[in-house]
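Morning F.,

Quick status update on the modeling queue. The single chain you submitted on Monday has been processed. Sequence for confirmation:
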Amino acid sequence: MKSSFMDALARGSSDDMASIGRAIVENLAQLNSTFLAFLGVSGICGSFTFTAAASVVVSEPLVTANSFIFLQATNAAAGTLVGSNESPYIASKSAGVSFTVTTAAGTAAAGGEQFNYLLINLTS
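Structure tokens below.
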């Protein structure tokens, strides 16, 4: 007897394939969470967009004073910002509230630069 996965592949409908894709992503996310918990780490992901300003405050209630925060540019404008003398960095963290991302030169970003972030809190 074929599994539902194999049945969906055999039928090849876009709805079934989309369901399979979602299931794979959900299972990978669960596997990642389990792996991080095993290592004594919790990871939180999110995104934000710079406005035409030198800094942006990112609301994140799970941030701590000891959080590690990694930024990833997700559009060309953000890539250009990262590659310039205005490269963004984590300027401050307010435990349980937010963190602030500021341009290195202290000058305003153009606006529209999109970033993902990965926030890691060590639990042990």
